[in-house]
Amino acid sequence: MRYFLTIGAVTAIAAFCLFAQVPATDDSASASATRGMPARATPGDYQAHGAAGPLQVGAEFMQHSVPTPQGLLTSEDYVVVEAGLFGPPGSRTTLSYQDFSLRINEKKNPQRSEPYALVFKSLKDPEWEADTFVEQKSSKTSVGSSGAGGKGGNSNDPPPVVHVPIKLQREWEARATKAAFPEGDRVLPQAGLLFFQYRGKASGIHSLELIYSGPAGKATLALNP
Fold first, then answer.
1. CA 116 to chain centre
2. Are 172 and 73 within 8 A, CB to CB?
3. Predicted model pTM
């Protein structure tokens, strides 16, 4: 039995084969290429700095703050370190948040740096929360008042529940993502935020060591709590 293909069928098959040879776009790689924050002028502009082979590492402890160009965010579940990696002009290296760990209060096992996406659930904007609380308190007081002799809100009432709009949450997540430490093969200098799980108050931290162990070498930096 013989089979015949029309010109249209042949064209369709050829187009399918060509499409199959084109690699899919890696959105995650594209996003990683735009991550990070501007590195400071020199490693010495950070709270602490040290050599890791031919490279220099600079770092500063930000406590529970998540600094972004659009303003400060916070996280009660994570502490943050701003880190920068420097090298000779034109040098490059492979970057990863997994190259960093943080020793808190001289604990034997240092805390490994976490993926930036894990901080999303605990992100807050102090200014937005403060404004929302004032608005809710003012509204509650006006409703409970009844002239000069009326009673306002009870001081023993629990704090109002704050519901963050989804759109605003996505905005905070995008800001934290953009500021996170970059990954992949990059030209130096590069800088960004590292996240370490720590639910206690920053005032309970008495000593800190940031440990870098990357392709170029190792460095341990003593940070100010």
1. 4
2. yes
3. 0.76
